Amino acid sequence: MPSYRLTLAVGALAPGVTPPAVLPKAARLVAERAVVEAQDVRLLRGVPCVVVRYEAEDDSVATAVARHAVDGLRSTVEVRSDRVTRRDGGSWTPIA
């Protein structure tokens, strides 16, 4: 089964939300629809990003999983941008 990665650039947190709470919530939301392989927080070009890697049957399912996670996070954190990529050999290919 293909591996996908959802990368979310995050901004302001909702009142009462702490930074350590964002990654577990993102992973839980993805896990509601797919098998989570890994989760991480990264600083990309100075912007904090939540990264969740997961399995999905195809690009359309992977996109639906990502939409579910993004929609579920909007009450917790400002999602500045999101990107879904698919593992192709040794690289990550963006999907629409």
Tally the helices: what do you get? 2
Largest sheet: 5 strands, antiparallel
| Order of neighbouring strands in the sheet with most strands | 2-3-1-4-5
- Share of helical residues: 25-40%
Give, in order, the helices and strands: EHEEHEE
Helix/strand class: alpha+beta
Radius of gyration: 13 Å
What proportion of the residues form beta strands (DSSP E)? over 45%
Low-confidence runs of at least 5 consecutive residues: none
Distance between the termini: 19 Å
Mean pLDDT reading: 96
Total beta-strand segments: 5
- What best-fitting shape do the alpha-carbon axes yield? globular
Explain what you see.
With 96 residues, the protein is an alpha+beta fold. It is built from two helices and five strands, in the order βαββαββ. It has a five-stranded antiparallel beta sheet, covered by helices on one side. β2 (36-44) and β3 form a beta hairpin.
